[in-house]
Each structure stands twice: as structure tokens, then as C-alpha cells.
Write a structure and sequence with these properties.
The structure is a single chain. The model has no long low-confidence stretch (mean pLDDT 87). It is built from six helices and four strands, in the order βαβααβαβαα. The chain has one domain: 3-Layer(aba) Sandwich (Rossmann fold), CATH 3.40.50. The N and C termini lie far apart (43 Å). It is globular and about 45 Å long. α3 runs parallel beside α4 and α4 runs antiparallel to α6. It has a four-stranded parallel β-sheet with strand order 2-1-3-4, sandwiched between helices. It has 140 residues and is an alpha/beta fold.
């Protein structure tokens, strides 16, 4: 059985925004399970850990978990997350297929091939990450 990692925003400006991000990710995780793959959703794994464990430990742990997965599926708003952008770059550089659209993931699960959009996704993730860093650096 393939194991698929969900990547997308976790953090938010309020507890409600965080919960909405988690719900989007877990909805996608359920779709992965229904498609016949196991799913790792780090959003639900650390749902109530804010302030209880350091962000660095959680983020490093997420990358270790991702490394053990067969593929990544992205939430529709993944480009709003510097963490998700890092996960995309990390996955692609480690040869883990990344899927921006659930339909593409389903085809991959069924047929087992997918390479054509990985470099384009990596470039998009780098661009998003760098834009978010510049925005944060500008004090926005």
C-alpha cells in the first residue's frame, strides 16, 4: 500500500484559522484513504501541540515522516505556506512524487507513473517560499 503525505498550511493568525487549515488537510487525507492509499496528515498529528513542543522539532519531524512516504498531495492553498513549499522542495529533491491535484494522485495510485510536473512544482515552491520570505522580511 502506498503512503501519501498531506502538505499545506498549518499555522494561522487565530485558533480558528489553524483549525480551518487542519480541516482542509484532513478532508484531503480522507479522500486519499478512500482512494486506497494510507495517508499521513501531519496537521492532525500535531493539532493541539502549539506551545507544547518547539516548532523546529515539529517541522524536522514532519520532514522525517515525509521521507518515509511514497508521495505528497498538496492542499489547494499550499502556496500560502512556507512550510509546505519547503516540503515540496524536500520531497522532489528526494525523489518523492508531489501532486498538486487529487486527480493526478489517483492516476498515479492506479498506474504508478508521474514525473513530468515535478520540476515545475519545485520551481513554483521555490518562488512561493522566496516571495513569502521577502514579504515577512518587509514586515508584512
Amino acid at each position: 500500500m502506498k503512503v501519501v503525505y498531506v502538505a499545506g498550511p498549518f499555522r494561522g493568525d487565530s485558533a480558528w484559522e489553524i483549525e480551518c487549515n487542519i480541516r482542509r488537510a484532513e478532508t484531503l487525507a480522507l479522500a486519499v484513504w478512500r482512494a486506497g492509499a494510507a495517508c499521513l496528515c501531519p496537521h492532525t498529528n500535531t493539532r493541539f501541540f502549539q506551545g507544547a513542543a518547539g516548532d523546529e522539532v515539529l517541522l524536522e519531524g514532519d520532514l522525517e515522516l515525509l521521507l518515509r512516504c511514497d508521495a505528497v498531495i498538496l492542499t489547494e492553498d499550499w502556496t500560502n505556506s512556507s512550510g509546505a513549499c519547503e516540503e515540496v522542495i524536500f520531497a522532489i529533491r528526494h525523489g518523492i512524487p508531489v501532486f498538486e491535484y487529487f486527480a493526478s494522485l489517483k492516476l498515479w495510485l492506479e498506474y504508478g507513473t508521474h514525473k513530468e510536473i515535478q520540476s515545475a512544482l519545485e520551481a513554483k515552491a521555490i518562488q512561493c517560499r522566496d516571495a513569502r520570505r521577502a514579504k515577512i522580511g518587509a514586515g508584512a
